[in-house]
Amino acid sequence: MSAARPPPQSFPVQVVLTALVAFGPISTDLYLASLPDMARAFATDPGTVQLTLSAFLIGIGVGMPVYGPLSDRFGRRRVIIGGVLIYLVASVFCMLAPSIEALIVGRFLQALGAGVGPVVGRAVVRDVYPRDQAAKVLSYMASAMALAPFGAPIVGGWFHALFGWRSNFALLVAFGLGLLVGVWRLLDETNRQRDPLALHPARMAANYTALLREPTVRACVLTVALGFGGMFAFISASSFLLIDVLALAPAHFGFGFAVVILGYILGGLLAGKLTARVGLERMVRLGTVGLFAAGAVQAGLAWAGIQTLPALLLPMSAYFFFAALVLPNATAAAIAPFPGMAGAASALVGLLQMIGGAGAGWLVGHLFDGSTRPLGTVLLILGAGAWLAFRGVRPAE
Known about the structure:
Layout: H1 11-21, H2 23-29, H3 35-41, H4 46-74, H5 76-95, H6 100-114, H7 116-128, H8 131-145, H9 147-163, H10 166-186, H11 201-213, H12 215-245, H13 250-278, H14 280-303, H15 309-335, H16 342-367, H17 373-390
Helix pairs in contact: 1-7, 1-8, 1-10, 3-4, 4-5, 4-6, 4-7, 4-16, 5-6, 5-7, 5-10, 7-8, 7-16, 8-13, 8-15, 9-13, 12-13, 12-15, 12-16, 12-17, 13-14, 13-15, 14-15, 14-17
């Protein structure tokens, strides 16, 4: 019975929500060390293998605009359960995929289920907490969530070395099963303002149009898209750069990746402590300046021909640090003014975020030339774009 479930502000529920929001990082970062070997196993090129990452982001982007209104209409809990079930079945398909084409399709289907996590998980936070408290909780969740990509590439690298690349998808099956049990037993319904017309096409169009008419919302979603795009540009290229270019062993790949994720963890902790005092908008503005600076350093080192582990990992760690100031706070600022359609607002942010990530990942893969120059150039452009997108936003009264 729902009465036996813990309150939504409790620590166990926050763990479940963090795991839901972490659907994307876990599903992408766990098998990164396997990408070079997967290219060889399927006799294909790095760009094609990287499509398994971009297809995942596209799948999340397709699902997000639907999950938001679904949860506004029918409630958060049952929609989350449905999405996790889709993810679980698709993960089994990915584990057994006979070809790279089948795996790309499987990743798209897997992402259709995974899209429920970040959209509805953030909407649950908005249901439960007021504006500034929601930003604080999202920042702490972002920091805790970063523990998943901090450890996932390490575990994935070990499993790859011991059992091959398919073992990483077996781990994703286990993750989906565990999350399904957690949601079923711990998460109660939090949507107390259900919109019976949320799924009506005219209402959906009106909701998204109303959101996009708000200048602050436009600035926030664009900032999130560009900031996340830089993060995913590194994620999609990291295994080829660290393993093939910088000669790091696959079993050690996760440790190099963890250096970068550590920046995100520290940034999330800082944002969680300071946001209430500094304010959402000022934290985002500070973060976008940092994204621009970190991208400029990465590009400068790359074009100077300095290709070493510190020259790649340290600027990327700084980029991820500042991204942790930007993403949760810009998301909270976009969602906060719309309690009646928090799901739709969260979906809009998530959709643009996934589009930004998929585009940046495809671009870096397409431009890959065996050096760090394409990554540095993309980071510089996206960091500058995020700073420009948010520059005119003023703090809310």
